[in-house]
């Protein structure tokens, strides 16, 4: 690091007691002389050969060797003598003799007098100078520099090869070049770190002092190393930046290829095995269980598709991230991949959804069909059971239940038609995405099945309607039958009530002929009412006979209703005739009595008709006797009109009138008695 008075560099060659290899020394000198710049070399070298620990022959050999190694650059050679001085005459003569041939001056000098030729500040402490120099430190720095230079140079070549290979040639050549030289032999980051540390160390030594605090000037080799290191670092940074871009492009290309490969895997599966699975699933089943089995199979297919759809979502996110990166050269390809992937996935998802909706519609159709079939079975079972109701109310209830079931069947059939039409519409739309397959035959089977189910349900419903019509007519006739029987029984009750009223309330015979005639007229009207009631009952019973014949059944109540009706009517007739006979007798009695009583005694015919009094008395007695006699019915039973007191009251009126007639008779007889005496 020291310089002579001509600013030439000082080269120190320390010799030791051991045998010195001239070859190694020559190589070392060549290396050291390669370090300074040409400008420094042009100023020449001052060589200090430290021979204090060596022999003269060795020193001489070294000096002579300098002629071959650096003859032009060496201007002065200072050989430092040992304390035991060599033969001065020999040595001086030898070097003086060789001066012209060597081309440089050789001076033998002791260490303490070396300062005559070189400034003390340019000499190390070994030669009595003050120049600070640490050979191991210099060696370590030099080794680091050499290693950095070697690695950086090699790395620059590799990076240049990689970067240049990525800039030239076709795309295939570019990719092949990148594949062959993609990884450098050393880590660029580590080399850059070493270079930065080395440059920092060199720059720090340039501005800082030595450990002793004395100002220090860096050696020329260090000054020369700084720009070399900086230049290498700049080149490395440039090439490494390009290399990183190449790696980024390669990574992007690799990622793009991986995405493209995955996209094709998804597309190939969906268009291949996925579509084939859907092609084999075209049926809708012929029952709820069959549709549920198809739904379960479809869920398995959907489960397999969901795994690929998950890959699609992940790929779509990756593609979106790359699109956001904004590399224009890949935008078209990425968008094409994204569009292709989306089209296939959405188309397959639509097919899966359509299939699921179709199976759900089929399941609903079969569910409605099964419910309707059960309703029809229940209605048919109800129609097949013979009707044996107890009364008209139960028939009305049964008829209402029958109508409700028929209405429920109508609603069920309407719902089946709606479900079936919706299912047929979906099947007709299946041709728009038939999985690349002609589904006409398969669809025809499904359509025939749906239409067959609806037609079968329609026929069953029509048969049930016909049976309901027959059952309704029969039940209405039964209602009429029960109504006729009830009304006939009511007619019997009414007739019985008329009979009872006739016996208990129709008692009076009238106080005179006029009143008796009025009672007789009222009785005839009363009999007309009873006759109408009897005729109404007879008509009702005749109607029950006709209805029973139509229903082919035996009435449960008309059998005893007719005898009861006839018995009551017979009793009423006998009682009515007795009542008429009594009233007619009373009319005759009152008319005759009143006529006799109204005639004057002076009238001659009154005396000629005495026998009429006898007739009136006879009629009156007959009437009184009849009042005491009960009405006797064909079955031997007897009934009296009213109570005994009522009969006594009626008889009393008759007796009073008979007394008046008797009194009149006596009055008529008195004149006859007095005439003979006269």
Automatic annotation (TrEMBL):
Keyword entries, A-Z: Repeat
InterPro entries linked: CRAL-TRIO_dom, Spectrin_SESTD1
SUPFAM superfamilies: Spectrin repeat
GO MF terms, alphabetically ordered: phosphatidylinositol-3,4-bisphosphate binding; phosphatidylinositol-3,5-bisphosphate binding; phosphatidylinositol-3-phosphate binding; phosphatidylinositol-4,5-bisphosphate binding; phosphatidylinositol-4-phosphate binding; phosphatidylinositol-5-phosphate binding
Residue ranges occupied by any CRAL-TRIO domain in the UniProt entry: 1-135
Entry annotated with the keyword Repeat: yes
Top-rank lineage group of the source organism: Eukaryota
Family statement: Belongs to the SOLO family.
UniProt-recorded name of the protein: SESD1 protein
Organism annotation: Spizaetus tyrannus
Annotated gene: Sestd1
